Amino acid sequence: MSAAPPTAFRLADVARAVGGTVVGDGEALVSGIASLDRATLADLTFLASSKYSALLLDSKAGGVLVSPELADSPGRCRNRVVVQKPHEAMLALLPRFYRMPSRPFVGVHPSAVVDPTARVDAESCIEALCVVGAGAVVAKGAWIGPHCVLGAGVTVGADSWLVSQVTLYPGTEVGARVVLHAGVRIGSDGFGFVYTEGAHRKVPHVGRCLIGDDVEIGANSTIDRGSIDATEIGAGTKIDNLVHIGHNVRVGQLCLFAAGVAIAGSARIGDGVMLAGQVGVAGHITIGSRAIITAQSGVLKSVPAGETWGGFPSRAHRATLQGYAAVNKLPDLIKRLERLLSRDPTA
Amino acid sequence: MSAAPPTAFRLADVARAVGGTVVGDGEALVSGIASLDRATLADLTFLASSKYSALLLDSKAGGVLVSPELADSPGRCRNRVVVQKPHEAMLALLPRFYRMPSRPFVGVHPSAVVDPTARVDAESCIEALCVVGAGAVVAKGAWIGPHCVLGAGVTVGADSWLVSQVTLYPGTEVGARVVLHAGVRIGSDGFGFVYTEGAHRKVPHVGRCLIGDDVEIGANSTIDRGSIDATEIGAGTKIDNLVHIGHNVRVGQLCLFAAGVAIAGSARIGDGVMLAGQVGVAGHITIGSRAIITAQSGVLKSVPAGETWGGFPSRAHRATLQGYAAVNKLPDLIKRLERLLSRDPTA
Amino acid sequence: MSAAPPTAFRLADVARAVGGTVVGDGEALVSGIASLDRATLADLTFLASSKYSALLLDSKAGGVLVSPELADSPGRCRNRVVVQKPHEAMLALLPRFYRMPSRPFVGVHPSAVVDPTARVDAESCIEALCVVGAGAVVAKGAWIGPHCVLGAGVTVGADSWLVSQVTLYPGTEVGARVVLHAGVRIGSDGFGFVYTEGAHRKVPHVGRCLIGDDVEIGANSTIDRGSIDATEIGAGTKIDNLVHIGHNVRVGQLCLFAAGVAIAGSARIGDGVMLAGQVGVAGHITIGSRAIITAQSGVLKSVPAGETWGGFPSRAHRATLQGYAAVNKLPDLIKRLERLLSRDPTA
């Protein structure tokens, strides 16, 4: 993530690293990776699809990763590395060109406030101005970025990374290799009130939040604790920015939730479910495994496993699309229909 | 909220506490509360409705709170406490089984940065790494969690709780017994610009934000200050996570706003209004007291008191539902209609 | 933004400051500005439009800014300052009546943690408990409020203001005169994963985030870094609270994005584009310059420059409105149509 790449690579070495072959000058040096329209002579770029061939024409790149069928695409840059899957090759090369984020040191920064009863592994990193509560456990290799707050009894698993200004409410359990981006809040009280004697009285929230291994959660997302049971996010699930997950929700493994999604309390989400941007899910319903919900949909009833639903209220995607198409035809149709009906006095 | 409940209770004592009667072994001990499917022999559970009777069959709980008509429901656990309202009884028992969140100490943590002109009550708690600005006032019993920032001239009322990493912009007034969850921002500048001479020029925001008594605001929600007048949240109103309230908005008492709601500037919201998840409210309109707006609706014009509205653009819920139903019928109808029209050359 | 205005002004002086003329008592003193219904005898108020004349009747203000045609509007307050544009005059007066936010001091607060390799201009301000990483650059006049985290290699331009608890991920570049409100996160990893061997594997994000001059971003909004290229926000663009902007998005100059907007990865937004509240924009599409998207719309395909679009899926605003109107007519029409069809056995 550092701005300055460490060194330069010969195209011949790039080709060897990704199992490709050089067309042109294998001695050409590149020291960064950039898109077709932004690359300079010092950059490697890639042409992943013929859709972008036009951008190759004028690209100033020093080298281009191309697939075999695009090896001869016209373009200013004649130094090419031919490889089966240029996009995948580029992803594989990134860690060679750029330094990935890593712990700046091992140990506890002197400005951090760590309760004496917390158990912080000697090979973890607690950055500046963190607060670690009583009985909290931070495992080996964990990296707690600046300004994080770990409440009492929290556990953070091995090699997890809390980027910055993350709040873990008391009792939260975070698994191994989890990434929590800046401003994530986990374990806040659920939105539960009972109206009695002229006031909304708060339902105590004594449940917790359990975040499985390999989960990633985007900036400023919020996950409420359970009222009695735990709110759970299954292993390998990835959640984008500004997502809300209500109390008692159980999310399965390997789900993908895009930005702006909101899931109401006690919903059950299976494994491998994909929720597109700004989707809302009502409380107490179930979304079956591998279901897909299209963008901005509002899901009010349970969705069977494997189906694609959309719209508001959501139903099978195909039906929703037909509904949209029909609405588009409607204004014109209504005109014709009204003319017709006007001639039939009995209608 | 602590993970470890303090002690165990006899079912006979549980029954006495909630005015119920024991069926089975009153000497059985329980030390926690859990849902039917998760309870162990050490847990008390509850059967709130016959809808969940199936879950009782195999529940491993050590005791069950049940209503009189379900006292004999079949189930592995025969130790029961019969009570009129099992769910309410369970809520009343929670504070006996679990330690509720409370101030960890009284006074100011040495790492906090408190302006010498701030007036902090001796019986309040300012946790680690807080910043308290000039002239700020923190009342008796208030609990300011770690990493909160209280701007100049802020006031926080008695027994209020700012959980963690809350920002109160200068001049914000927070009432008594208020709960502000992690990442709440109150008093940020409203979104007001005037386009002149080729730029969006900022409208100064000199109004403030007034938060009434007994308000609760969820994690990462934001409330803008007024441009001239104050933005106000009435007493007893509860706001969920990731909610946005624009400048100059006046919200009445005892409202409930679910997660993802956004209210544009200068809207007026009456008392007891319910906004479901992801609802949007346009600027300068009025939502009458006790109105209900259904999930994901976009409210573009004022809503009379007591009505239920929904959809986009929102109108009376009944009309919206009829519209949805009609759209569902539409594709088929259009086919039949087109056939009909095709036979009438004048239509 | 301070609660107490510094001093009082004679209405005659107010009139001189805005090029207006006094009707009534030019010696009357006012020391604050308030709306018609809230003003006291110590306040100046304004009547911007005849729409609000009724509120003038009972206003207790000590003076009123009015336009020439409303100079004689009936109302309790007879001391008036007549001016061509009362609202603009009021905005111009605000900085005379109220102290605008400004740096509380110059230098670095002793509680801040600043890397020795960071270059912090002697005339900037780093408030309490900030963290400034290796190689970061803070320019002259910049004001970094309490609890901000500036990652390694970040640059903050002249006279920019990070209000509080802002996170700038490593490598982020912020221009001059930028305002970032509390809880803004810039440069978080984009939501990019490749599913291989039973897991969603993270796509490295080595691009950065570039924020142009004069940009303002609202509380708790998030902007992801680019995967390879930069995510860019053009000069003079203003973004409201709780907005999400995905990786690789390029936003032009002078745009306005209201609260709750979400823009998916690699979208291109032209200059002067207006996105109303809660709009969603799909990835990889283009919204042409000066286009306007109405509230809560979902934009799934590219929008030509200068057009107004709305609805889901979005299309030209006019067509969308016709669709809504048609749906409203539909339930009744369907009844009549079904009657008609029922009499035609062939339809």
Task: Provide a short characterization of the protein structure.
3 copies of one chain form a homotrimer. In chain A, 15% of the residues lie in helices and 28% in strands. With 347 residues, chain A is of the alpha/beta class.
- Estimated share of beta-strand residues of chain A: 25-35%
Amount of helix of chain A: 10-25%
The CATH C-level class name of the largest domain in chain A: Mainly Beta
State the end-to-end distance of chain A. 70 Å
Gross morphology of chain A is flat
What is the second-level CATH architecture of the largest domain in chain A?
Answer: 3 Solenoid
Key descriptive features of the protein:
15% helix, UDP N-Acetylglucosamine Acyltransferase, domain 1, twelve-stranded mixed beta sheet, 347 residues, Udp-n-acetylmuramoylalanyl-d-glutamate--2,6- Diaminopimelate Ligase, Chain: A, domain 1, homotrimer, alpha/beta, disordered N terminus
Can you tell me about this structure?
3 copies of one chain form a homotrimer. Chain A contains 4 helices and 40 strands. Chain A is of the alpha/beta class. In chain A, the strands form 6 sheets. The first copy, chain A, has a 12-stranded mixed beta sheet. Chain A has a 10-stranded parallel beta sheet with strand order 9-12-15-18-21-26-29-32-35-38, with no helix packed on it. In chain A, 58% of the residues are buried. The N terminus of chain A is likely disordered. Chains A and C meet through α3 and α4 of A and β23 and α4 of C.
